[in-house]
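> run fold UDP-glucuronosyltransferase 1A1
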Amino acid sequence: SFTGLGLGVFEKKPFLQRVVETYKRVKKDSALLLSACSHLLYNEELMASLAESGFDAVLTDPFLPCGPIVALRLALPVVFFLHSLPCGLDFQGTRCPSPPSYVPRVLSLNSDHMTFLQRVKNMLILVSEGFLCNVVYSPY
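> ok
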């Protein structure tokens, strides 16, 4: 499922069709991740075993919200092992400006010297990120 999502980026299809297909894939994949997280959190035996293990922290990927939820449930600190948080939350949390007119989005492949069309693309990526982030993270 995740391989298909990644490979879909390279398909040569009309823009709107790619957007709709990406939305459907993301919705399906996020439901899968939410189900896995729910099964973990409601497995009382496993959660009790984790609580009794005496861990000092939870190392997790911030892209998947289940790690911080497990850490909260176990009353443990969280250590993220990525340099940024999804959906620009690191920029929002630090109030660090990231204007799309000259700061390229992570997966845009743009440099900081963009043409007008690259800036438009950058803005479209920014808008779609917000929409997709809402799809992925709102169930949590």
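The mean pLDDT is 83.
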